[in-house]
Amino acid sequence: MKNILSKFSFKNAILKGTLILTISGITCRAIGFFFRVYMTHLIGSEGMGIYQLIIPFAGVVYAACIAGICTGISRFTAESVHSSHWMIAGSVLSIPLSIICSLIFWKYAELISIRILLNPDCVSPLRTLALSFPFAAAHSCIGAYFLGIKKVTIPAVSQLIEQFVRIGSIILVSLFLHQAGRPFTVSMILFGNLIGDIAATIYNFICFHFYKKNLESKKLHLLNQIRRMTTYSLPLTMNRVLMQLLASGEAVLIPVQLMLYGHDQTAAMSLYGILAGMALPFISFPSAITNALSVMLLPEISEAQSKNDIKKIASIIRQTIQLCLIMGLFFTLLFILIGSRLSVFMFNNDTVGIYVSILAWICPFQYMAVTLGSILNGLGKTTSTCVVNIAGILIRILFLMLLTPRIGVSGCLYGLLCGQIFVCAAHFLQLRHMYQL
């Protein structure tokens, strides 16, 4: 481990940025993880199931309005001296789209809840969630700009502000409702998410005001950038929307397939809440490191590609693979040895421990898939990465449809593992073919 880390010079922007984002990510995840335990006591496992049923729809909006555009902002900003214009061009596309999605979700929340989610309790949470879309788009675009110019401290602080404000507002609301003798609902959690997004937007906008550059260029130049941003982000956005729609379909299918196995609706939602709201976040906690690394790799790889620096790209890929393998194997062993008991202690639920023991094997493949996918996106292979990720989701859905009605929730767990192995292997083989690793 020490030898591998020594290859990353501290003066290297990748390592600096990764360390900053890792510290921020781990801090946010640690706070968020312990808050998630608090949340389970507020809304219970069934409430967590409803929450996890709704969140994938936020992922669909993020994919449609934000993700592809933010990838374009980071990439073009890293390549261009007119960096602030890429943020403006992306915002002109992203924010209006997010407002349209907010209006659609607000108006058709009842239809979505009853006809798609098959749960009428999702109406109010969906409407609360819809309010946060424009603010999420705004602070994501500005954050992508700062990542592109490698000022990673600002997105890191923004992440912390969002988390602290979100959790603080939820705790205050829960205390107020407790004193008033009123129940705490899933909508209150999503209201806290809205307040956190607003706080992050205000902070990022203030930072951008002081760091903006080259805003004196003509309007024609900005329009050209908007066209180029649209051309780059549209295929990526369409692929990611398809991927998120499949992920949302998977989220809806899990409770349905569990009911086919023999559980009633309440038990099915509870099991889904334990899996998606407790076990998976527990297993994914260390991925703050690889997520930070993947965020920093995209602009760095894009810059190296623009200079045709093949040796640098190959070196980054090799070092990333080694680091992710060591991390993944370490945390797999850790979760197998103590993860089950620790998760049971944290959530006071024996079922969580069973799921964690099975999902521990996913760690090396999960960490590797995320970082290698980011490298491929930085190389402009966005379509192939999305196709592979979609195939991974289809594998999970196949396991869900074929095995879950027969063996219960274990079918979901095996599908998650096999899908992640496939994605990791496909990304690795593509990079190996490209750079003879």
What report would you give on this structure?
The protein has one domain (2-435). The chain contains 17 helices and no strands. It has helices at 2-7, 13-79, 83-107, 109-116, 123-130, 133-148, 153-180, 186-211, 219-261, 265-284, 287-306, 310-347, 350-359, 363-378, 382-402, 404-407, 410-435. Helix 2 crosses helix 10 (265-284), helix 9 crosses helix 10 and helix 12 runs antiparallel to helix 14. The chain starts with a helix and ends with a helix.
Helix content: over 70%
Q: Which secondary-structure class do the elements indicate?
A: mainly alpha
| Sheet with the most strands, sense and barrel status | none
Q: How far from one another are the termini?
A: 20 Å
- When the domains are counted, the total is 1
Total strands: 0
Please tag this protein with its features.
437 residues, mainly alpha, disordered N terminus
Give the SSE map.
Layout: H1 2-7, H2 13-79, H3 83-107, H4 109-116, H5 123-130, H6 133-148, H7 153-180, H8 186-211, H9 219-261, H10 265-284, H11 287-306, H12 310-347, H13 350-359, H14 363-378, H15 382-402, H16 404-407, H17 410-435
Helix pairs in contact: 2-3, 2-6, 2-7, 2-9, 2-10, 2-11, 3-5, 3-6, 3-9, 4-5, 5-8, 6-8, 7-8, 9-10, 9-15, 10-12, 10-13, 11-12, 11-14, 12-13, 12-14, 14-15, 14-17, 15-17
